[in-house]
Amino acid sequence: MTTAAPLIVWFRNDLRLVDNPSLTHAADSGQPVIALYILDGTPGVRRLGAASRWWLDRSLASLADDVAATLGGRLILRRGPALEVLEALVAQTGAKGVCWNRLYDGGSIARDTAIKSALTAAGVTCQSFNAALLNEPWAVTKADGGDFRVFTPYWRAASAAVGGANPLPRPAAVTWFGGDLASDDRAAWRLHPSAPDWSGGFGDWRPGEDGARGRLDAFLSSEAAGYASRRDFPAQPATSRLSPHLHFGEVGPRQVFAAAARAALTDPAIGADVETFEKELGWREFNHHVLFHRPDLATRNFRVAFDAFPWRDDRAALEAWKRGQTGYPIVDAGMRQLWTTGWMHNRVRMIVASFLTKHLLIDWREGEAWFWDTLVDADIANNAANWQWVAGSGADAAPYFRIFNPVLQGAKYDPHGDYVRRWVPELARLPNAWIHEPWNADAETRRSAGVRLGASYPAPIVDHAVARDRALTAYRALGGPLPYG
Ligand code: FAD
Question: Maximum CA pair distance of the chain?
Fold first, then answer.
């Protein structure tokens, strides 16, 4: 019988058993372990959006099953400000240690720092580990020791440092704390939407470690071949759809890299595809690097010159964008895919973000907030960095004057209109030539396709040429060129 004090493993965005250094540390310690998840209410930590709550609900169910079935333990659920929850559990169990895997957004860092100092002062040891990144934000620096603001040199330095990262196996056994601990009822957390339940279109997702492993295997064995050339075409199932699994830590980047390298060794023909895929994961790393050095990335322009940008306050246009009613088919298809499934293809995310910030001149923070609420992969680093990238205010951003023409983007990346037909069914019978610009089809073509502009489908809410000129005028008013600041 063990007399050692218990050790609390605090799960956060690391909802897995394999390659989980905090869990492995606890298992190796031989101390009795308490597995804990906290639905945190610490002020300053960003609350989860609705789609993320849906995902979390299922991911926790999956983790609880895995802890029970493979390790014979029990996942304890508690709700409240994390420090209060931990202090109560320490008082109740006599735990002498807490361990977790690190997060990199400002709110989480501030919370974790406060928790570490309060618990340490109370004689409880806190240890933290890296589960979420190949390289932690401070591990890759420029020659002068500063942080990177441009992706290419960042990734050159960071990818060279990746080599030796071997994922940890699932612990073979864990000694569990034997006391009787109360756990919240997950259903009482009401993470699943009700009144109305809008999650009917989320059915293809399989949150949890098993689902993540299945997605990774399926991607590498079939979709990876051709990824480099097909990844920009939203009608094709060509990308991994691993983003929510990575965000919640149901799989970690070390595992993804190791599996991808194995796949490329087995089938050298997919070498270039795997390299492109790894580079996308590199953007995820870069965005975390940027967020760590700019904790206010989700609320402040990376380039301060953008603070003077004359954003418009146009509630009706914002609402039309959110609902997929702008009259631009590729934009509306993307926004409806997002609302229905909790996910949107990357190319289309760029198009809809460009449309909001440039055609409608609406502040990128409005788009960031909507994505935060509706994406199952909503992630502070990736969401904020990408919104700022598209808006032109970010690190290594697309220049503001690069304004996507939604008609040309649609024609290029959805040439047969399959994506639009799927998500904007009221346009399905239009011929390919007009699927991305129904207002230019002649009246007879529209009539025979059952399209009544302004009735069955909106007329464009802005004219592309007019909106483009307006955006360029607003940009010039900033006085360009825009230094970082
Ligand atoms: P794949 O093409 O299979 O890529 C593999 C992985 O690489 C992804 O799962 C993701 O983790 C990472 N990745 C790919 N592209 C990017 C990128 N541009 N930036 C950072 N990481 C990338 N991604 C999120 O995970 N969460 C977000 O909240 C998010 N918000 C975005 C907002 C906007 C405006 C834009 C333009 C992009 C956003 N992205 C976000 C990035 C990207 O669109 C998604 O990661 C990608 O579409 C997920 O699909 P996938 O897993 O099939 O990607």
Answer: 84
